[in-house]
């Protein structure tokens, strides 16, 4: 192991709490734990807006391909990257197709909420609370997971865009734009200044507590941060929001400071108008960003970290089967989830496919949901995150939990 990594581990010896938080425009949360915690680092990428699952993973052939092409004469995707005999992947997702073929990525089709809503805000809230149909839940599912597994945190989460509902009721956070901010502030604050600030933040108000947490984060993280971060294995992140946030997460993982959870928002998937231009266009651009960001993130960490990495890509719902008059798609139901990591049983499409015949569609309009999204997250919790108490994380769901074999 490189000397710098060893020194970082030594520096963190005896630190029995989660330490830092930072965020960019879309990076919503980071949570740290003791660096001897054996569970995976969870990275949740939430695609806000409801992505078009039927153009991301379309049927490849047969009757369902016919129904798909008839419903989308202007939006259908061709030149698919084959996944199996039944489905193909949008051609803009080539780098993710490589990961799929290498057994590092799995796909769950016809997945989503077991609840009828086409509201972005309601669907996102239900997913992040982990209690579909109930809005009065007082904590998010990730919050309950962290509390259940005893992640003691000083500064676990942060966002310039607001704390996501999945971490509702977790401890207060502090915001910075990049890991280098820790180093900049930590180096600029000389001992006398830090001592003065400690005195200033000795009170018991929320403001005092937030200030003290910020100083704690600076004192621990700033010596670990290398401002000129160089990705590994030739990974090259795009200069877009998603690429830069994933680069930040990779850098924080490599601090070996016990990063447990990172949540990233990637918006813009509400494709009501002019969704495609052949195999390109608006959704093609979004998929290019997603594919490049995740593939470079995996490549960067494929130097000793991916065996303890679990990435989940989720959206609040899919889109209608039939294109609308504006050459787009409207809010639907069933969706697609992606799973990446060193212990994913990749190279497979999971879930029961309901079909696209009118009688098989949900409400005679949408891809039906045959796999509750909590099935995927419950299996992730129990097999990779060291938490088998599904009932506490997803109340009322444990009796329905039936693992799909996604994770080893």
Q: Spell out the helices and strands N to C.
A: HEEHHEEHEHHHHHHEHEEEEHH
* Percent of residues in helices: 25-40%
Strand content: 5-15%
What global shape is seen?
Answer: globular
Distance between the termini: 26 Å
- How confident overall, as mean pLDDT? 83
Structural class: alpha/beta
Poorly predicted runs of 5 or more residues:
1-26, 153-161, 172-176
- Count up the helices: 13
Number of strands: 10
Gyration radius (Cα, Å) is 22 Å
What's the main sheet like?
Answer: 8 strands, mixed
Notes on the structure:
The chain is of the alpha/beta class. 33% of the residues lie in helices and 13% in strands. It has 13 helices and ten strands. It has helices at 3-12, 53-56, 62-71, 94-101, 120-129, 141-148, 179-188, 191-200, 206-221, 241-253, 281-301, 373-384, 390-393, and strands at residues 27-32, 41-48, 81-82, 88-89, 105-112, 259-267, 309-315, 335-341, 349-350, 371-372. Strands 1, 2, 5, 6, 7, 8, 9 and 10 form an eight-stranded mixed β-sheet that branches. A two-stranded antiparallel ribbon has the order 3-4. A hairpin with a 5-residue loop joins strand 3 (81-82) and strand 4. Helix 10 packs parallel to helix 11 (281-301). The longest helix has 21 residues, at 281-301. The model is unreliable at 1-26, 153-161 and 172-176 (pLDDT under 50).
């Amino acid at each position: 192991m490189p000397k710098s990594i060893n020194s970082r581990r030594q520096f963190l010896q005896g630190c029995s709490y989660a330490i830092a938080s930072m965020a960019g425009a879309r990076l919503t949360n980071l949570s740290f734990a003791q660096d001897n915690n054996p569970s995976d680092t969870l990275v949740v990428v939430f695609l806000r807006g409801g992505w078009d699952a039927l153009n991301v993973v379309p049927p490849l052939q047969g009757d369902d391909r016919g129904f798909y092409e008839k419903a989308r004469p202007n939006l259908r995707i061709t030149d698919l990257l084959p996944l199996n005999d039944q489905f193909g992947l949008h051609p803009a997702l080539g780098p993710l197709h490589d990961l799929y073929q290498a057994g590092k990525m799995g796909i769950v089709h016809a997945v989503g909420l077991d609840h009828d809503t086409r509201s972005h805000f309601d669907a996102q809230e239900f997913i992040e609370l982990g209690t579909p149909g109930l809005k009065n839940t007082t904590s998010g599912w990730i919050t309950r997971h962290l509390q259940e597994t005893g992640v003691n945190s000083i500064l676990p989460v942060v966002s310039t865009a607001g704390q996501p509902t999945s971490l509702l009721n977790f401890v207060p956070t502090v915001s910075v734009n990049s890991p280098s901010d820790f180093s900049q502030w930590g180096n600029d604050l000389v001992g006398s200044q830090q001592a003065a600030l400690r005195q200033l933040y000795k009170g018991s108000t929320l403001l005092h507590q937030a200030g003290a947490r910020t100083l704690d984060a600076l004192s621990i993280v700033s010596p670990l941060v290398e401002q000129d971060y160089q990705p590994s294995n030739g990974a090259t992140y795009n200069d877009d929001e998603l690429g830069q946030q994933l680069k930040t997460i990779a850098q924080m993982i490599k601090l070996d400071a016990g990063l447990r959870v990172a949540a990233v928002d990637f918006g813009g998937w509400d494709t009501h108008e002019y969704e495609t231009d052949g195999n390109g266009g608006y959704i093609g651009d979004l998929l290019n960003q997603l594919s490049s960001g995740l593939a470079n993130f995996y490549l960067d960490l494929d130097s000793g970290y991916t065996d303890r990495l679990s990435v989940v890509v989720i959206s609040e719902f899919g889109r209608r089967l039939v294109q609308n008059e504006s050459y787009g798609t409207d809010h639907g139901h069933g969706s697609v989830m992606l799973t990446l990591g060193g212990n994913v049983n990749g190279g497979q499409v999971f879930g029961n496919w309901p079909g696209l015949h009118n009688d098989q569609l949900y409400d005679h309009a949408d891809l039906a949901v045959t796999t509750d999204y909590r099935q995927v997250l419950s299996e992730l919790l129990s097999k990779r995150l060291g938490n088998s108490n599904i009932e506490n994380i997803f109340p009322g769901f444990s009796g329905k939990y039936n693992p799909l074999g996604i994770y080893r």
